[in-house]
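We were asked to recover a plausible sequence for a given structure. The inputs and outputs are reproduced exactly as logged, with field labels preserved.

PROBLEM: sequence recovery
POSITIONS: 342
GIVEN STRUCTURE:
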């Protein structure tokens, strides 16, 4: 089934697991297992946890999380929560797909929801939260093509998995649309739509890699870089801060990094946002109402599940004409006259 956007641990002995209790115990507990980026990653784990915190404030629930320090923690963390009176267990990230499926099949009465993953065929007690981030990334690519001075853009990912490459797909397609519309020849380094090969750090936590990959792209001429690698991208932002935004600008992902990376907010041209907080809160609310069901919940431009963040400090640098073109593209994607996904 497919739906449009808007689903007390016991004593833990694992030394590598962190536990947080948030809010009063009022009869409903939402539990979250993070990926290895951590709960304060300025990215998808943190944004998903915000959805729990929002539910805590608006619905009066209790919220808990377990941090995964390594992929080997996934099974143990989920199993700990299964025995911990969680009304909904939310796992965050594509890499938790196997562990979540295993736990859900073994505990068919326990509701689960997983961010950035959907099962085919569906698992009845798991609701997947997925996002058409290529739609917002298409706008970001068009924007970047209209802003670059060198006619060279760059991107790199954390790991070559669909929730990462969907950003890169949309970005390249947006640049291609600019080239077709304007008769231009802006190029994107770091991702090939046809071969599905590109630049990947193979992690989501090494800021030094983010700096190094952005440096290599800058050295090859890129003056705008899209890192799709969670906290790794903060290393790219540090480089842009040192070089100056006249030489290098960054496009953020997942959250509006202007607000989460406040020390370097001036380097962000925009961010491609995924409203994981909104979908998580909705899943919790539905579960509280007894309306939980498995399947897939999709965030799009139309329903606000994905978006392009404001330009903030760079607003005056983006021409009124380009802003108008972006508005027209957004409308075209929403009404179906512009196709982004294959």
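RECOVERED SEQUENCE:
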């Amino acid at each position: 089934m497919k739906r449009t956007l808007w689903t007390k641990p016991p004593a833990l002995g694992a030394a590598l697991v962190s536990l947080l209790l948030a809010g009063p115990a009022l009869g409903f507990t939402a539990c979250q297992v993070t990926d290895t980026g951590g709960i304060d990653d300025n990215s998808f784990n943190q944004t998903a946890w915000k959805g729990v915190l929002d539910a805590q404030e608006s619905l009066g629930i209790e919220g808990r999380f377990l941090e995964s320090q390594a992929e080997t923690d996934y099974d143990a963390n989920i199993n700990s929560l299964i025995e911990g009176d969680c009304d909904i267990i939310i796992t965050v990230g594509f890499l938790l797909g196997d562990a979540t499926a295993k736990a859900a099949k073994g505990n068919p009465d326990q509701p689960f929801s997983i961010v950035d993953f959907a099962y085919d065929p569906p698992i009845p007690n798991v609701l997947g939260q997925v996002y058409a981030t290529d739609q917002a990334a298409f706008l970001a690519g068009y924007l970047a093509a209209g802003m670059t001075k060198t006619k060279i853009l760059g991107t790199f990912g954390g790991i070559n998995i669909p929730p990462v490459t969907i950003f890169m797909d949309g970005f390249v397609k947006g640049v291609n649309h600019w080239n077709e519309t304007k008769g231009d020849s802006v190029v994107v380094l770091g991702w090939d739509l046809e071969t599905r090969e590109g630049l990947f750090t193979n992690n989501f936590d090494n800021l030094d890699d983010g700096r190094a990959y952005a440096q290599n792209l800058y050295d090859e001429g890129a003056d705008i870089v899209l890192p799709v690698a969670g906290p790794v991208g903060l290393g790219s932002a540090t480089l842009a801060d040192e070089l100056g935004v006249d030489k290098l600008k960054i496009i953020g992902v997942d959250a509006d990094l202007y607000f989460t990376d406040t020390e370097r907010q001036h380097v962000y041209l925009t961010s491609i946002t995924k409203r994981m907080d909104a979908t998580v809160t909705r899943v919790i609310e539905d579960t509280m109402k007894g309306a939980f069901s498995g399947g897939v919940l999709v965030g799009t431009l139309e329903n606000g599940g994905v978006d392009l963040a404001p330009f903030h400090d760079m607003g005056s640098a983006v021409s009124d004409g380009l802003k108008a073109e972006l508005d027209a593209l957004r409308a075209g994607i929403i009404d179906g006259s512009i196709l982004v996904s294959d």
